[in-house]
Amino acid sequence: MTRYYKAFIPALVASCASYLVFVLITHLNLGPTWNFPAYTNPKVGDIFYAVAYSLAGAAIGWIFILFVRNFKLVFKRLNLAIYLRLTIGGFVLGIISYYIPLTRYFGHEQLTEVLKSTFTLQFLCVLLLFKLIAIAVTVTAGWRGGFIIPLLFAGTVLGLIIFQLFPGQNLALITVCCMASLNACVTRTPVSIIILLAAMTGLHNIVPVIFASLTGYFLAPKLPLIQAQLRREKSNDSLL
């Protein structure tokens, strides 16, 4: 336990300091980043709904991981120079973004747009598929980029798909639970995702989100996708 606190407290201090600098530079307020629909009248049964929604999020997480691992295998077999990999990746990303502009960038502004707009179920499915492909191409072709915000966008689109299939449900609960489970499944960082979503979505009742994030984490593949986690697990195994 002492070792845990020795690692956690410096990380917490560094996070607070970096967040403060970020807010001062960007002139952002301390409110939520995205304006999700209000999550009103929470019930105990919402926990079971959250677990159900998180199953869909975890399934999409597995699909994304499959994309990444297969694209890695393709680029490894091609054995191209880095500038050729970047060119191919950029060409693929350009084609996707030309036909589906909402797949561009890391999804911060686009997430607000999909929440405010109305799209058909077919378009949302296409958007989700090609956003996952775009993220996977970005990280495997050598371009700089991360998982978290793009996967939050993908989780939002998944939530909108579920909401169109089951329109009587709570949209905020669906989308945030899908965001949590998808990210937790891919990144294997359930606690960080819970804190991040509580801050960025303004959802006050985070209990269902906790269940969704943990469900995504426990349904994650045994082999981590992130290389740092994989190296850490190998190091821990060598110590046993």
Automatic annotation (TrEMBL):
GO terms for cellular component: membrane. Keywords: Membrane, Transmembrane, Transmembrane helix. It is a multi-pass membrane protein. The chain crosses the membrane at residues 7-27, 47-68, 80-100, 120-140, 147-165, 171-187, 194-220. It is found in: Membrane. InterPro entries: Cl-channel_core, ClC, ClC-type_chloride_channel. The keyword Transmembrane helix applies. This is Chloride channel protein.
